[in-house]
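Re: that chain you flagged

S.,

Sorry for the slow reply, it's been a week of failed gels. I finally had a moment to sit down with the sequence you sent. For the record, here it is as I used it:
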Amino acid sequence: MSPPSCFLPPDFPADAPVALVAGRGTYPHLTATRARAAGRELRLVALDGETHDDLFAEFPEAHRRRVKVGQVGHLKRALRDLGAAGAVLIGQVRPGRLFGGLHPDLRALQLLATLRERNAATIFGTIVREIESVGCRVLDARSFLDADLAEDGVMTGGRRQCDQEHLAHGVRIATEVARLRIGQGVLVRKGTVLAVEAFEGTDAMLRRGGQFKTDRKIFVKLPEPDHDYRFDVPVFGPTTLETMIEAGIGTAALAIDRTVLLDKGAVLARARDVGIEILGVREGLR
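Prediction finished late last night. Pasting the structure tokens below so you have them in one place:
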């Protein structure tokens, strides 16, 4: 059995069922695998049209529910029915669902009407409060993933290839972009900002920046200074690495202990094979 995660609250009961509120991608699968290895009893709330069917099939009928994106009242009832003491909000929801394909119930409409600004922080922050109002604690989404996080230094091995000054510039720009809640990633080259991530997401930003046919491009991904890890954790995985390869980007700098590497061993091995360095950096690097 794996040791307990350092991201779980110290007073969270070891035998308490944990519900995965799961979106798209391999993140929910990874969390389920790690949580089971730690001996946790799991439940699943699947988001209709987002959660993979194979993950849904892993759970017995009594331990799973399916709700539509935006049905806050249904989500709360599902967590109560499943007897979940904690919930982990993981996986992606397609950005377009915020503009079409949303199915808000009456409670969701009431909550949305109270928001002056509608962004990830305000919307998901409100959902967290609603979930916790029924006695289900929303846990840090890094829970159980301690071994899958970015580490300090050159994770791909060897000496750092990118220039320290240019890396520090990228970290400084990424820090400001995150602080302004624009996005978590930037692409820089020798003191020039090539691209900034916004609503389109990391991979689309890298493809856009890759249109500049030049060398020594550095991708930096950092969370917001007051980032809420209960509903959003920076992720780096095989898809982003392949996008970097296609875009001719040679360095990725990721916030240590704050970025999840999906399929970490395979990603680092693939990066080494193609000559891409992956660094773990601390926010505020100068």
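What I noticed first: The two ends are 40 Å apart (CA to CA).

Talk soon,
D.
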